[in-house]
Amino acid sequence: MSPPTATTTDEIIHSLKATNLNNIADEGKEILVDLTKGKPAGGYSPFAHLLPAPTLARYKKYGIDTSKGYPEAPPQSEIPTFVDEAYAVRSEGFLYVERGKNADPEKKALFGAATEVRHLTKHIGTEIVGLQLQALTDQQRDELALLIAERVVVFFRDQDLSPQKQLELGEYYGQVEKHPQAVHVPGLPGITIIWPEYYYQTGVKNSFKRIGYTGVWHTDLVHEHQPAGITHLHNDTIPEVGGDTVWSSGYAAYDKLSPALQKFLDGKKAVYVSAHSYFDRNDPLNGKKRVEREHPIVRTHPVTGWKSLYLNRAMTDRIVGLEPGESKVLLEYLFGVFEKNLDIQVRFNWKPTKKGLGTSALWDNRVSQHNAIWDYENTEPRHGTRVTSLADLPHFDPESKSQRQSLGLSLD
Ligand SMILES: [Fe+2]
């Protein structure tokens, strides 16, 4: 579609209404679009004084400088304006090493060093007690990668974790995602910030009745060419009550489907979209577009070999090959399988047992989706640092089995 060629004020006003752009000016007969409109300012934000005390203490201990401002974003000049620039951020494949593949299946080095290994539910979620993430050996890191692949999400309370060590662990697990516009720890672009106070300060006005995007089921970075594998969120400031997160298992969601529906979905692809949107260079007046990439809707996990349903409400747009109406109805059903089946979910409260320490969760985005609960309503601070390791190119192996098939569990 070519850009509209409005030449009169009336036509310009009409195109304003049609495109929701409120930044077109009549400069003679030209239309200028302010392409920075809606774009983050970039650089440092002036919110360092709002940082909660535990975050400040952690940053001080590990030499993170917040004197220029907090948090930091890429410079505005480097933030993509056009969708083709956003596609180009990571359009090429990269070599990925699957750390869980060579790990000891019994995980003796990891479990042997822990004081307790606690499975939180039957199908998803394990807490490891008595280990510091920043002191793990490579052998223990490999075993942890295997455990995350099997249990979907693994938790560590009472962590004294430097941002630098968090980043290093993420680099071990894949290519650390450097977001083209999300805010990060000053000086460390690979560590993004999860901080509701920042969202509030920048215009996200959630309420008890209207919880915005923070309360939507999603999987991190599904629109990438090689999407997210392990995400490691370390919350260094945690509400006294509430602020839990829920994860749901993609393995178990697949096992919930009938063999007929499983067969229908096996080998199908869907379109996955980015969270942020950008102008189309050839059609800037027609609203912003998201990055879109196709991936298999059923993935075979490279470590466990189990099939997993790979979709989520926030970022899976449509199933390839179906009519729009068919895709909508089927996706709605499949989102519900993740969201409504409590037996395939784990709800985790982040509170540490020791004051001044933080809690980490490491989950495998290839086999899960998650949702953060905003019941504390920003009346108490919550702050975390997040490192996401991009992983393999998603693939579907027609010979692979589901989790329950592989484990010999009942399929009824
Ligand atoms: Fe997330």
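^ fe (ii) ion complex. The two ends are 51 Å apart (CA to CA). Confidence is low (pLDDT under 50) at residues 1-30.
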